[in-house]
Structures
1.
Amino acid sequence: MNFTDKEDLREPYSSLTEVLELDEILKLADLWRGRQILFSTSVKDTDTYNELSDTIGAYKADRVINIYMGELVYFPKLKSLSVREQILREFNGYNYTGLARKYGYSERYIRKIVADKSKAIRAICENQTSLFD
């Protein structure tokens, strides 16, 4: 995994950029990859909180909990931008499930990657002037 900037991060990790340094986010991503965590009012009484505070310290752990309080958050495996580009190159319009299995993402996230790219392409096309204008 080659991350050099917080800009490479997607949700839910990008929500942490104001609280944690990149190396701390990467440690957290490694710790929680592929897990769903409920940030309820009793989260401080769980092993999850202990793992978090051991990894980044109690003060920052409390700040992370405040960010997600009341939410059920899925922490996907963290992939670099180059993997997202590879997914887009391999996408054929029908292979969401195969790409999800191959790269360890949910099918929903593969659809989001494709939709984000499609949205960006449409925005570029809408801003171009027509030859017929």
2.
Amino acid sequence: MSKRDELIAKYATDLKDKCGVTPDMDFLTKVTIGCGPSIYNKDAATVSGSDDSELATVKNNFLIKKLGLEDSADLDKAIDSVMETYGRSNRNKYRAVVYYLLAKHFKKEAIYK
């Protein structure tokens, strides 16, 4: 099993156990690949739910640039909702899981096809 496959399995477990979501493994794999090499860097692989600049990066680089969404209060609400779903007290919020949940929330799965 490759390192990426191990990480995808870890992300799937997080989705099931921490978020209560049954993961679409095909889509999760595509989102993980879309994260690029950041998944192998301990700091870059996670999202700090309490760091405003980190959340702004998720909003600008993922929601606006990658998914092509317009900047609005809905984006902040969606990020807040995902942080709540993932569990605010959960220290490790994996970027691929956060992106997966946000893409599903906005029904933007087609971006990864």
